[in-house]
Description:
The mean pLDDT is 87. A hairpin with a 3-residue loop joins β1 (230-240) and β2 (244-249). It is elongated, with a radius of gyration of 32 Å. By secondary structure, the chain is α+β, with helices and mostly antiparallel strands. α2 packs antiparallel against α8 (119-130), α8 (119-130) packs across α11 (177-190) and α9 crosses α11 (177-190). The chain folds into 2 domains: 6-218, Hypothetical protein, domain 2 (Endonuclease III, domain 1); 230-348, Nucleoside Triphosphate Pyrophosphohydrolase (Alpha-Beta Complex). 41% of the residues lie in helices and 13% in strands. It contains 14 helices and 8 strands. It starts with 5 loop residues before the first helix and ends in a 5-residue tail after the last helix. It binds a DNA duplex through α6 and α8.
Amino acid sequence: MTSSTFSDRLLAWYDQHGRKDLPWQQNASAYHIWLSEVMLQQTQVATVIPYYQRFIEKFPHIDALADAQVDDVLSLWSGLGYYARGRNLHKAAIQMQQQHNSQVPEDFQSLLRLPGIGRSTAGAIMALAFHQRFPILDGNVKRVLARYDAINIWPGEKHVETAMWQRVEELLPSTRIANYIQAQMDLGATLCTRSRPDCQRCPLITDCQAYASGDPTLFPVRKTKKQQPVRQTNWYIYIHQDNHILLEQRPQSGIWGGLWSFPEAAAQVADNILPVKNAVFQSSMPEIKHVFSHFKLTIHPHIFTADPINIVAENNQHIWVKIDKALTLGLPAPVKQLIEFLSSTERML
DNA sequence: AAAGCGGGGTT
DNA sequence: AACCCAGCTTT
């Protein structure tokens, strides 16, 4: 049996459940559609609506916008974010006034030359305003497509995005292009949402590969989160004859606030700024890697023996403490790990 | 606290 | 071409 096509099912769903009452869908001119599409970049419908309404009231047509001061445009944009969109909108209106007879140009290449209009926004205007067969590839469409095809690479990858543009192109219907483009946006915005897609109501459930795989929210796959920064630190483990070690209390705020740790230096430092004078270097231990939420720390522990004559006086920040007693203090995990190791190998030192 | 988002600007 | 950025929302 042949099931109906992707676009047929989407259009049938749109007829029943699509959004048809949005402000820019009433008496829609190309100007209204352009304005709404720019406002909808990076911004949700519910946020856009009041801004859109104030905007068209003050600037009901392209000439009103082109003749305005940019500051007046921006004041109506205030709170929407991405203010370059407002500046570009104003610039584009002037360009339309001067070069396109105060109209939104009706061809794709001219649209692309206007500031603030890229490939997806140009496609939306061509389809929604001029009923020409152009695809869009915004965040909603990317999500729907990544699920429909179970694309297992992050869509930000150049080759994936190129393939997706090709895919949205081939899925286009030959009729009802404006409804279809609106349907794609509506499906992504209202049903195929990021975290809680309502697959049971989805017209694409029968051949959605992500649904078939069991968990559609695994798509689109996330950007591999960028490598957390790695910081290096040196820890100085001073031991004196009676198996005492020198610990230092960390500042109350910040990493491991208030816990006891070894004297520390971010890089190799001269002996004379270490807290113990004339200590004798014994050995360096293997590095320890510790992972925090926002960075990785590589710890280089170095063991010194210290003559009690040369030890610094105890104070609020520094204590000499017997190794076994140290284990009863508040210690960061890697400090505890190191001290436990020292405790087990005391005799060898 | 972090990810997502279309287009523009920079390297 | 490949990166970074903008500002607000959602998770």
